Backbone:
């Protein structure tokens, strides 16, 4: 396929085929080139005794601002031609002429799952485990590879938070930090979806910029530089690229900041949010682009773990600083150890006790 040299050039890199397990996407700079690629795929499949399901295949022909309904064939069968409004789900992500949001159905299913868990006869800690292990991970793939609306995440966050407090017989005005702290310090080990979205944006960028595939790194860097140049109207230096990634609002990046939405603009917003609560930053030098935590470079495989740990460290300090609930948290952390051994009624009693003893303190 690569030897056919029919690929599409993206920022100086020729892209011929994108494949993951049994999902294959072919790209070409011309209609004849794409049909030739399909003919090669047909030849190989026939030789291997494989049969493509043309009914599950689709093509997209982009010609400027138009989307012609060009017909392509695979193993003699016609493929569906996508128009401007069609979205084909490639690896679960909506792909088409326009860039659309993803994860809406997943979020709806997640809410239904939480509702079912809420109405079940499970113990409080079992409900929390179910949400943490089976509900929240459902959206992670879309957060890393797609564009999920933050407003939808906030709505589901609020619903999960309210349910968790009800399971533990806590009033809704009780502090939420304990819901998101790890078990080892007396928390429930959940994570807000909106915060998870910011973390996933950063993690995805780290994996692209540190990929073992040099073509992936080259395309990632070139699209990043294009986004920076679009705003500053000049070729970006390493220093300017670093300022862009670190969400600078000074100099060339002073408001108003107008830019089309991309993974890099979303990364910029995520970085701004995370830098408010943790010591993270981006560094650009001759060795490449690196994520730093406490001035130390972070490997791609460790990025998600370290970012989550930094978020929970921030919450622990925030809760411990509260004059009333912070004191209860300190006692709970030392005496109770794990939420699994903590009866929901006891949690409510602890909260009511500290409110009775310190009625004038706002929490």
Residues:
């Amino acid at each position: 396929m690569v030897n056919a040299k029919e690929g599409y050039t993206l920022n100086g890199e020729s892209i011929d085929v994108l494949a993951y397990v049994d999902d294959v996407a072919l790209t070409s700079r011309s209609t004849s080139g794409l049909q030739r690629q399909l003919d090669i795929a047909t030849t190989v499949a026939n030789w291997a005794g494989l049969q493509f399901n043309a009914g599950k295949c689709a093509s997209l022909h982009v010609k400027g601002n138009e989307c012609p309904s060009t017909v392509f064939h695979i193993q003699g069968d016609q493929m569906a031609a996508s128009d401007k409004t069609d979205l084909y789900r490639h690896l679960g992500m909506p792909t088409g002429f326009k860039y659309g949001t993803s994860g809406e159905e997943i979020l709806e299913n997640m809410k239904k799952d939480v509702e079912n868990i809420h109405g079940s006869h499970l113990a409080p800690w079992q409900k929390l485990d179910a949400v943490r292990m089976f509900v929240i991970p459902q959206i992670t793939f879309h957060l890393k590879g797609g564009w999920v609306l933050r407003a939808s995440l906030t709505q589901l966050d609020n619903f999960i938070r309210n349910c968790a407090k009800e399971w533990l017989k806590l009033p809704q005005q009780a502090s939420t930090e304990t819901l998101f702290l790890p078990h080892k310090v007396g928390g429930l080990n959940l994570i807000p979806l909106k915060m998870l979205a910011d973390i996933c944006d950063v993690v995805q960028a780290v994996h692209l910029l540190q990929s073992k595939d040099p073509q992936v790194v080259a395309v990632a860097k070139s699209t990043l530089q294009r986004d920076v140049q679009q705003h500053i109207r000049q070729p970006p230096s390493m220093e300017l690229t670093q300022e862009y990634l670190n969400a600078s609002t000074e100099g060339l990046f002073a408001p108003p900041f107008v830019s089309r939405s991309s993974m890099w603009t979303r990364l910029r917003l995520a970085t701004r949010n995370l830098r408010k609560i943790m010591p993270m930053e981006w560094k650009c030098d001759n060795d490449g682009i690196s994520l730093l935590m406490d001035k130390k470079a972070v490997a791609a495989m460790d990025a998600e773990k370290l970012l989550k740990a930094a978020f929970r460290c921030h919450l622990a300090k925030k809760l411990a600083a509260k004059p009333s609930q912070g004191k209860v948290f300190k006692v709970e952390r030392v005496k109770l150890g794990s939420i699994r051994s903590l009866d929901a009624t006891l949690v409510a009693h602890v909260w009511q006790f500290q409110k009775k003893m310190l009625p004038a303190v706002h929490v």
